[in-house]
Specification:
Length: 100
């Protein structure tokens, strides 16, 4: 998993959806994680950029992932909304919103 340069995280109450891309912007990770498995998964990864929609719960996860060495970007909900609609149609989570 060392070729992952960016991970998008779609948060929910108990299951998180992860989508990671490599330097060529090709998907290399699609994974569902339970809340209890989230930190263990990110501990095993080298430091990378992580994008999440800003909401109450993601501030906690941003602090935890930053403590592990990851660079977390919290995105305003209005910037994430167009990708949510696209994800429902295709079953994937585009990463354009998490770019710098």
């Amino acid at each position: 998993m060392s070729d992952i340069i960016r991970i998008g995280v779609d948060t929910s109450k108990s299951v998180f959806q992860l989508h990671g891309v490599d330097a060529a912007e090709l998907p290399v990770l699609r994974k569902k994680l339970r809340r209890r498995d989230m930190l263990a998964f990110f501990r095993r990864l080298p430091a990378t950029k992580v994008g999440m929609e800003a909401c109450g719960g993601t501030h906690y996860w941003a602090r935890e992932l930053t403590a592990l060495g990851h660079e977390v970007k919290l995105l305003p909900p209005q910037h994430v909304k167009p990708y949510v609609r696209a994800a429902r149609m295709t079953g994937t989570m585009p990463m354009r919103s998490a770019r710098q």
